[in-house]
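Chain A, query sequence.
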Amino acid sequence: MRPLADRIRPTELAQVCGQQHILGENMPLRNIIEGGNIPNMIFYGPSGIGKTTVAEIIAAKTNKRLHKLNGTMASTKDIKEIVDELDTMLAPDGVLLYLDEIQYFNKRQQQSLLQYMENGTITLIASTTENPYFYVYSAILSRATVFEFKPLSAADVEPVIHRGFAVLGEESGTEVQCEKSVIETIARGCGGDVRKALNAAENCFLASAKIAGKCEITLETARALAQKSAMRYDKDGDEHYDILSAYQKSMRGSDPQAALHYLARLLEAGDLPGACRRLAVCASEDVGLAYPQIIPIVKAAVDTALQVGLPEARIPLADAVILVATSPKSNAGAMAIDAALADIRAGNIGPIPRQLQNKHYDGEGDVPKGQNYLYPHAFPNHWVQQQYLPDVLKDAVYYQPCDNKMEQAAVEYWKKIKK
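Chain A, predicted structure.
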């Protein structure tokens, strides 16, 4: 038997869950579909939120021959077979090609569609879970309209679960009974993925006893069979980098609550290395010279986390994340090295000053004679004025102290010494 999600797939736009920003009354995608003149389109968004469903509804409303391909399995040969049908009795009005996971098509495969998209014999509806502006060939993008499908809330998914249980009851001739908390648990656990939600609902139904024509689904069953986490996470996808980005930016922005939230999402997904790496970077990049002691403190927390592993790793990491988020901030070190690197990459290098060279003798042509290096420890306060930068960069300033107690104390110290 087909999965429940496929058995109750909507056949009308009004039945589609969520996506009101493009499918609501007088919204762009809805107007295009109802107008009947279908352009090339790319549907972008997480899995299980209606992209394939909307594509099939569109296909049912056109006179074009429908072909479905999946980018993970299809080949150039599959495209050639579709092209061979053009202008034949099989496809007198052209072809509607639904290409799922287009990001897995290489550039050459995508290019093979261009001519037919251009003359209208193939209308392409492609879907992708990755940002199309990164993964789809630019010539395809220029011939298609991108529609972003948004993740669904638990409230969006609850009516679909109700409908799923009703269909399961009708098919089996039983009365499905469950508390509202069962529906809520499944809806929260699916992370906005309707397919996951309906799979969980079907599993709950199959795992529950049927007595006297009734099937009672308990909260314990729902908790056991719903998805472990309401979080979407793909270690090679956009969601992975979005969570890591939000995690680091929350620490940089001094918001410990948000930083802990994103840390929890990383740990729940099992991405301990990613959580540790971004934490260590943030300690140096965003706190840095405002509280230099934080770097060995965070390293110790990271080392402990990696040594003990999950779930215990959550404790030292939480301590370190809170410390980084609530510490004073300075990016002076990061800005300074980036400015120095910019000079190097621009070719602003110059020879090392004579007094700094690792050289203890003079060649025949060396003028002036002698290295003339001044040893700072031989002078009061362990400092003496001399040039360290190459001549072409002798006035360069890379490090600009930030306005925090630690760096300003150093500024005042050196003002006094160098005066």
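The first helix runs from residue 4 to 7. The mean pLDDT is 87.
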